[in-house]
Amino acid sequence: MPELPEVETIKNTLLSKLVGRRIMKVTATLPRLIKIPTPEKFVSLIKGKEIKHLFRRGKYLLLNLSGGYLLIFHLRMTGRLLYLPADAPVVKHTHLIFHLDNGEQLRFHDLRTFGTIYLVQEGELGLIRGLVTLGPEPLGPRFTPDYLREVLAGRQTTIKGALLNQELLAGLGNIYVDESLFRAGIHPARRAGSLTGDEVFRLHRAIRSVLEEGIRYRGTSVRDYVDGEGKTGGFQERLAVYGRRGQPCVKCGTPLELARIAGRGSVYCPRCQPFAAAAD
User: Fold this and answer.
1) Full-prediction pTM beyond 0.90?
2) pLDDT above 60 (res 278)
3) Is residue 280 part of a domain?
């Protein structure tokens, strides 16, 4: 699933191409991906709307449209948003095409069809529960070591599970949680409430640095992710643990291990990230 750095990169690559463009019509070959409003109303309402701005919230990409509307995408597992010329071949699994006033197109492609699309007015964001319940942005001012300490205090869930909880912190997924925990030297199965003040500080710093680096290298392409221009990211070349089960740790050389934690496969170094049972 595209996480914060991937969605941020998609936004950055589409921003200059889409702002000021007008949506002339929409071709929807898989209408069920449109969750709000009905597909028929979606196609009617969006016609003629100008794209004013793009921004990201967590893993959601939001387009400000004229008339006070928001076009919202959640890419889920395999969703892609691609800016293409109208004469580019329409490949399999292209489910929505937004025809723009300059003759170009914005296409939504989704192999597994888990992606979701919404069109709401700015005052109707409450209709999208997953969006309005998001926690702070991890690169924003609300995410401080004190905030992280407060939300982890007393939590019995694993630290991996806590960091994946979008209501506590927006935008993190399996890749960047594993990488952050490795940089902080914290085992993913540790109880969230067991972290010491120093560990919380290290984790806060690690989360920010991993995400900043992920954005700088334009996201992680390990399966389906490409940016708005169809280009792959580069952070996969810098992954320390994610997807590297059995390979040597980049710090100590110990073979990396895989465990299922919080319902997700979690790769970690047993030496650099000791379970530290005494801390529990």
Assistant:
1) yes
2) no
3) no
The pLDDT tens digits for 226-266 are 999 999 999 999 999 999 999 999 999 999 999 999 999 99
Helix axes 4-18 and 197-216, enclosed angle (nearest 10): 40
Concatenating the DSSP letter of every residue in 155-196 gives: --SBHHHHHH-TTTSSS--HHHHHHHHHHHT--TTSBGGG--
The helix/strand count (H/E) of the chain reads as: 7, 11
Same domain, yes or no, for 185 and 122? no
- Phi and psi torsions of 221, nearest 5°: -105, 100
- 114 with 157, same domain: the answer is no
Q: Which residues are catalytic?
A: 2-3, 59, 264
Q: Are 122 and 151 in the same domain? A: no
Closest by Cα among 74, 49, 60, 91 to 230: 91
Cis peptide before 145 (omega within 30 of 0): no
Looking at the structure of the chain, the number of domains it has is 2
- Among 132, 167, 195, the domain boundary falls at 132
| Residue 224, pLDDT above cutoff 90 | no
Residues 190 and 99 in one domain: no
Q: Give the residue from 132, 153, 177 where a domain finishes.
A: 132
φ, ψ (nearest 5 deg) of residue 202: -65, -40
Asked if residue 45 lies in contact with residue 71, where contact means CB atoms within 8 angstroms, the answer is no
Q: pLDDT, tens digit, for every residue of 134-193?
A: 999 999 999 999 999 999 999 999 999 999 999 999 999 999 999 999 999 999 999 999
Return phi, psi of residue 13, to 5°: -80, -25
Q: Which domain holds residue 96?
A: 4-132
Helix (H, G, I), strand (E, B) or coil at 260: strand
If asked whether residues 94 and 205 sit together in one domain, one would say no
